[in-house]
Amino acid sequence: MRLTTFSDYSLRVLMYLGAQPDRLVTIPEIAAGHGISESHLMKVVHHLGRCGLIETVRGKGGGLRLASAPQDIVLGDVIRNTESDFTLVECFGTNATCRIQGACQLNTILREALNAMFLALDGYTLADLLMNPQGLIPASSYPETESQTTA
């Protein structure tokens, strides 16, 4: 199974916010730091907000922050909320028809593998990804300080 870009970007946004809990972060800042399209990130941020994972503050001085503590954000839940299709092979669905369905064990084995992946992901939280928070902030995305803007 391969995660979608949407899930990848969702995890990057959560890590970026988790690495900077004391301030609001903007979409343009995250986009610049990761080289991601702002319009694509807006969709990701909107979805994360609807899922209750982040909070958005509108207006001048607004931005984004985590809605919960990093240790309360389970990675398995994030992936379940950002992926829409866990079909690993055509016969994986409940309404699938296959000419060898009665004898083939592939569906059962793949379902077991998917369950094992989520069992592993459910054992980790965003806090586990934040062991080196400063390393998670690309250098190009640090907010400019007054000394940088006057130099």
From TrEMBL:
Superkingdom as given in the UniProt entry: Bacteria
Protein name, entry field: DNA-binding protein
Coiled coil, from the record: none
GO molecular function terms listed in the Swiss-Prot or TrEMBL record: DNA binding; DNA-binding transcription factor activity
Keywords associated with the record: DNA-binding
Database matches in Gene3D superfamilies: Winged helix-like DNA-binding domain superfamily/Winged helix DNA-binding domain
GO cellular component: cytosol
